[in-house]
Write a structure and sequence with these properties.
The two termini are about 15 Å apart. The protein is an alpha/beta fold and about 240 residues long. The protein folds into two domains: about 140 residues, HAD superfamily/HAD-like (Rossmann fold), CATH 3.40.50.1000; about 90 residues, no CATH class. The longest helix is centred in the last third of the chain and has 18 residues. One of its GO terms (molecular function) is hydrolase activity.
Length: about 240
């Protein structure tokens, strides 16, 4: 199989959200509110356990009254906000305005860090002529994050679930991405961290490569094997043409 295109997930694959304590601290600082450090860390742990940080840890348990919107959270901006602010409201915070402020914070480019090898891998794929799409289950426009961190120049197409009303693992979202790149699914690899959601691309015939969803410091080169996949595919293709 010649890899002509690479589909990349966003959160946990190319970028990682800031830790829950940094997330809460940034919102408190912006509002001018002050909490004792012990209280701040306690609230951050409870928010993380609730799954209130998009891109962070999943909820330990989804409350029954949020189960429906949680299941469809990536199909629209409204459902995404409702799901995550709903989970945050399970944690009593000192100011009710913090819930929406926390949600707004996670959409800011400063809340995200690219993995150390993201620019290198995307740039090398582009140099090799591999077309690149970002395919994400998300409820907001992540393009400013890529622009702010200098990765937008490597991306040919963004396929975001809330813009299409379809979320992974539905193969229709991967089909949109392949069509946007002008490629057949069998010529593309899907790179992601979610075995259930991202592996849905295999149903179309895409190859799937999974990476570990780890903090940035603990995954310095998790994306580099994608270059080996692309190189190996090209070498096989070259050998077949010489026979």
């Amino acid at each position: 199989m010649t890899i002509k295109g690479a589909l990349f997930d966003f959160s946990g694959t190319l970028f990682r959200i800031e830790p829950a304590d940094a997330w809460l601290r940034a919102v408190l600082d912006a509002s001018g509110a002050v909490l004792p450090e012990e209280d701040l860390l306690r609230y951050a742990r409870r928010l993380e356990d609730a799954g209130a940080l998009p891109g962070g840890a999943p909820p330990l348990a989804v409350p029954p009254h949020l189960s429906e919107v949680w299941g469809t959270r990536d199909r629209s901006a409204e459902e995404h906000r409702a799901a995550f602010t709903g989970l945050a409201r399970e944690v009593p915070l000192p100011d009710p305005e913090l819930y929406d402020a926390l949600y707004d914070r996670h959409m800011q480019p400063a809340a995200w860090r690219p993995y150390p090898d993201a620019a290198e891998v995307l740039g090398e794929l582009r140099r090799r002529g591999v077309r690149i799409a970002v395919v994400s289950n998300i409820g907001w426009d992540l393009r400013p994050v890529f622009r702010a961190h200098g990765l937008d120049e490597f991306v040919d197409a963004y396929v975001l679930s809330f813009e299409h009303g379809v979320q992974k693992p539905d193969p229709r979202l991967f089909r949109v991405a392949c069509d946007a790149l002008g490629l057949a699914p069998e010529d593309a690899v899907m790179v992601g961290d979610d075995r259930r959601a991202d592996a849905g691309a295999a149903r179309l015939g895409c190859r799937v490569h999974l990476v570990d969803h780890l903090p940035v410091e603990r995954r310095p080169d998790g994306l580099r094997p994608v270059l080996d996949l692309a190189g190996a595919a090209r070498r096989r293709d070259a050998r077949s043409q010489t026979r």
